[in-house]
UniProtKB/TrEMBL annotation:
SUPFAM superfamilies: Protein kinase-like (PK-like) (SSF56112). This is Aminoglycoside phosphotransferase domain-containing protein. It comes from Coccidioides immitis H538.4. It comes from the Eukaryota. PANTHER family: AMINOGLYCOSIDE PHOSPHOTRANSFERASE DOMAIN-CONTAINING PROTEIN, AMINOGLYCOSIDE PHOSPHOTRANSFERASE-RELATED-RELATED.
Length: 320
């Protein structure tokens, strides 16, 4: 099948790069849109194939319960991953938030609550748990991007030990002392499938009223994390005194018991802030990793981290 009015399939990576305004200066570059193809190409050296795999798994497992862009295929070119996906025509919740009524804001948060609850229903095999990316590789959260090793981890305790020790990577003298924050990290929770960046800039809503969520985007950080991670990370990406953080996030993400949550989130913010602050002086990013199996109870997904052809029934040709 060839798209109406087109005599060829999708653009090649070289054609995508030619249309990028910041490919050489801003890693990762902004995605390139092809409006006439209803296509968006996310690409760059920091883009991972696992994001495409995650989108496909979410779409296959949940259909419309968790709205995400359809992935058509991906290709690796000169060390950069190119993900070809559906162009969702909507507005970010960030751009529209101030213009929404209280009732519309409440409706959006109700929709988010359903989406997040569906996502958190995915359970790992209890006999073989892990904390890591969707393909059981290292964590892709930007908080850890400069760490030379970042998983995967066999359980919460090992992850929490590692996470609380990260500031010592730059402060060796502190290793002489017991970490005062470690006890605030719970080791007896469950591991949840986590988006990892529920900022309202990653939530697309319909341009018409009443507003409805039409896509949750940017799954680059997704994976299996401790159950507290989604909530704490959402708070971390928002303004400390803002309405979004203090009023609305607790409506779609269940807060922990308030006193414990205050201590836990303080610890999370402190460690994450220091990681990012110190990491600018380091250059130790690791891109090691090969495909493994994603062991989730709802869906077992065989993953091979290589180029993947575009669905020819939709576009009539392979990428490149």
């Amino acid at each position: 099948m060839v798209i109406a009015g087109q005599k060829r399939g999708l653009p090649t990576p070289i054609e995508v790069i030619a249309l990028s305004k910041d490919f050489k200066t801003d890693p990762p570059p902004a995605p390139v849109k092809f409006d006439h193809l209803n296509l968006l190409v996310k690409f760059g050296s920091a883009v991972e194939i696992e994001e495409a795999l995650c989108l496909r798994m979410i779409r296959k497992t949940f259909c419309d319960k968790i709205p995400v862009p359809e992935v058509y295929g991906w290709k690796v070119h000169n060390g950069c991953v190119f993900i070809y996906m559906e162009l969702i025509r909507g507005d970010t919740l960030h751009d529209r938030w101030d213009s929404l009524s209280e009732a519309e804001k409440a409706s959006i948060c109700d929709q988010l609550q359903v989406i997040v609850s569906s996502l958190r229903q995915v359970e790992q095999d209890p006999k073989d748990p892990f904390i890591g990316s969707i393909a059981r590789q290292h964590l892709h959260d930007y908080v850890f991007e400069t760490m030379p090793w970042k998983g995967p981890f066999k359980n919460e305790r090992k992850f929490n030990d590692w996470f609380s020790s990260l500031p010592q990577h730059w402060l060796p003298e502190s290793r002489k002392y017991r970490d005062p924050y470690r006890d605030y990290l719970p080791d007896n929770g469950t591991i949840k499938l986590t988006h990892g960046d529920l900022h309202h800039g990653n939530i697309l809503i319909s341009p018409t009223r009443p507003p409805r969520i039409i896509a949750l985007i940017d799954w680059a950080h997704a994976g299996g994390y401790p159950e507290y991670w989604e909530y704490c990370k959402a708070l971390y990406t928002s303004h400390y005194e803002g309405e979004w953080r203090n009023v609305w996030i607790p409506k779609f993400l269940d807060p922990w018991e308030q006193y414990e949550l205050f201590r836990l989130n303080f610890m999370f913010d402190d460690i994450s802030h220091n990681l990012i602050m110190f990491s600018h002086e380091m250059n130790c990013y690791s891109t090691d990793g090969v495909g493994m199996l994603s062991h989730w109870k709802i869906i077992t997904y065989e993953i091979q981290l290589t180029s993947h052809p575009v669905d020819q029934s939709r576009f009539g040709s392979r990428v490149g």
